[in-house]
Amino acid sequence: MILTFSIMKTIPEAILAYAKGSPEGHVLSPKEFLHMGNRTAVDQALSRLSRDGYLIRVDRGAYVAPVQGRTGCRPPSAEKVVESLAALSGELIAPDGATSALAFGLEEQGRVARGYVTSGRSRTLLLGSVEVNLLRAPAWMLTLGNGPAGAAVRAMAWVGPAAADKALARIRRALSDPEWLTLVACRAAFPSWMARAIGESVLREPGWPPARRQLAAAASGSDALRVDAETPAAGSFNQIIGTA
Question: Which pTM does this prediction carry?
Answer without folding.
Answer: 0.77
